[in-house]
Specification:
The protein is of the alpha+beta class and 120 residues long. 20% of the residues lie in helices and 42% in strands. The protein contains 3 helices and 8 strands. The strands form 2 sheets. Strands 3, 4, 5, 6, 7 and 8 form a 6-stranded antiparallel beta sheet that branches.
């Protein structure tokens, strides 16, 4: 998983993540085509975490921020389905559409919890 921030002078900052397999396709084929029908958006920058995906940053006004998720929370499952890396997590969230609600299991410090989030 590759992630970064794009800064555009007129419109602000955009956080992005690109799955490793998409990068390989881009390097080999010179392009990658992603069908976009309105994928769900949580609004986090993520990294690898122990047993899940660590939230590095939440975007202002995002579903993640509004649901109370915090930096350094470790996401463990979407709708009860666990994952171990950011690419797998991105695919689970991206398989939903804006307006869908998902249940996220997460760990904060040593306590596990769940929260329902309406994706943008």
């Amino acid at each position: 998983m590759f992630s970064g921030t794009l800064r555009a002078p007129k419109t602000g900052e955009y956080v992005f993540e690109i799955a490793s397999d998409d990068v390989v396709r881009l390097l080999v084929d010179g392009k990658t085509v992603v069908e976009h029908k309105g994928a769900g958006y949580l609004g986090i920058q993520s990294g690898e975490g122990e047993g899940g995906v660590r939230i590095v940053r939440t975007v202002d006004g995002s579903p993640a921020r509004e649901s109370g998720l915090l930096e350094n929370d470790v996401l463990l499952a979407v709708d009860g389905k666990p994952f171990t890396d950011p690419g797998e997590f991105r695919k689970k969230i991206g398989s939903h559409h804006p307006g869908d609600e998902v249940e996220l299991s997460y760990r904060r410090a040593d306590k596990e919890a769940r929260v329902r989030v309406k994706l943008a």
